[in-house]
Design brief:
Layout (H helix, E strand, L loop, with lengths): L2 E5 L26 H4 L2 H15 L2 H9 L4 E6 L14 H13 L3 E6 L24 H18 L5 E5 L7 H7 L1 H4 L5 H4 L7 H16 L7 E5 L19 E6 L2 H6 L6 H19 L5 E5 L5 H4 L23 H19 L4 E4 L22 H6 L5 H6 L1
Parallel strand pairs: 1-2, 1-8, 2-3, 3-4, 4-5, 5-6, 6-7
């Protein structure tokens, strides 16, 4: 098994930096506060238009034409429409399955958010709040969501697998990201008691989730667990015979390498990828099929400034308003880091690029220079991938 995929980020789970206009007229930094700051009518209209236009049938044909075979679709915990004031999006996922099956693509359903937050990130649905694992009722709710997804899609031809939960954070990454300061909570009282999840909790949760999903999903489909930013911590996990087709997902970004002290130049990035990503993926592949479920070409060097670990103008970090590097130099940097990263993922079982597209105007809006490397379509169009990728296209 080796999969090549792309994430449909910011479609069913919103991320402000990927589509800032959606948040116009509010001070909301995340999806939790958007419906709480807009009137019901405006919120509904915005969300429905966004979901109808952001990803369409045409995108599935484009993804196939670009040589991808799988899409990872982030979905929210309120997908079934049972958590006010949010609007469910199960019909959109139904459509995605029909498109995927028509165009020979497969889908990894990725439960991307949890009530009360599993990481405190904006992409976890609520900034600065990370208390989900401390609330047994909400843990149970998430298990029921997974079970209902497995029941609905488990036997669909288009299903590749279900990812139990995206990026539950543990202590080391909580500190590296300094979550409470990088993603300040809008409501300090609500954030009270927030903190990282423990590996012990996650192990227990993953095993329960596996059992609940497998009740409805055949064994040839995959159950995917995220490494919680601790790739090497899972060697002794799920070794029992009952666990079949479990895939370990790791997310590796050059901005995280920078946050951990990697110098901001091409040679340093390549050395870091080889020493850390490639070596660790190869080692862990002996225990699980390992996929890199999120990665991209983005790096501070190509932006022309230190992005402080991938922080954007929305975080109050000054970005460049004019290009520092010419197109050829940028292409050189991106091709080099693409080649190094693709070589690392080849030691495992595949990858999903983050993300298929974004709606940030990197030309006219000051501060977004270099952010187009998050957009897979733009990267392909600009020829930023390694040569072997382009020949497969």
């Amino acid at each position: 098994m080796y999969i090549k995929g792309v994430n449909l980020g910011n479609w069913l789970v919103l991320e402000k930096w990927m589509s800032p206009a959606l948040f116009d007229g509010t001070t909301a930094e995340d999806e939790y506060y958007l419906p709480r700051q807009l009137s019901r009518e405006v919120y509904e209209a915005r969300i429905k238009i966004h979901r109808a236009e952001y990803i369409t049938e045409r995108d599935f044909t484009a993804i196939r034409a670009m040589g991808m075979d799988t899409v990872r679709i982030p979905v929210p915990y309120f997908i079934f429409g049972d958590r006010e004031p949010f609007i469910g999006c199960i019909e959109e996922l139904d459509k995605a399955f029909n498109w995927a099956e028509k165009y020979q693509l497969q889908i990894l359903i990725d439960l991307h958010t949890a009530p009360e937050g599993q990481n405190g990130f904006d992409n976890g649905g609520i900034c600065g709040v990370c208390k989900w694992s401390k609330n047994p009722e909400e843990v149970e709710f998430v298990l029921t969501v997974l079970e209902r997804l497995a029941e609905r899609y488990g036997k669909r031809d288009g299903l590749w697998g279900i990812e139990v939960l995206n990026e539950p954070i543990t202590e080391r990454m909580w500190e590296i990201f300094d979550v409470p300061n990088r993603y300040p909570a809008a409501d300090k009282a609500m954030a009270e008691g927030s903190g990282p999840n423990t590996l012990e909790f996650l192990r227990d949760f993953y095993q329960n989730a596996y059992d609940r999903i497998r009740k409805h999903m055949p064994k040839e489909k995959y159950v995917v667990i995220h490494d919680a930013f601790e790739l090497m911590s899972w060697k002794d996990f799920m070794r029992e015979e009952k666990y079949v087709n479990v895939v370990l997902d790791t997310h590796q970004y050059l901005m995280l390498a920078e946050a951990e002290g990697c110098e901001q130049n091409t040679e340093a990035y390549k050395a870091y990828v080889k020493k850390h990503y490639e070596k660790q993926v190869e080692e862990m592949q002996q225990y699980f099929p390992v996929i890199c479920g999120e990665w991209c070409l983005f790096n501070s060097f190509a932006c022309g400034c230190d992005t402080k670990g991938g922080q954007s103008v929305l975080n109050g970090v000054d970005g460049k308003s004019e290009e520092v590097l010419d197109d050829n130099r940028k292409k050189e940097i991106y091709k080099a880091v693409a080649e190094a990263q693709l070589a690392a993922w080849r030691k495992g079982s595949g990858y999903f690029y983050w993300s298929y597209k974004l709606l940030t105007d990197t030309v006219n809006t000051p501060g977004w220079i270099g952010w187009d490397s998050w957009d897979f379509g733009r990267c392909v169009d600009f020829g930023w991938f390694a040569d072997e990728y382009e020949t497969q296209k």
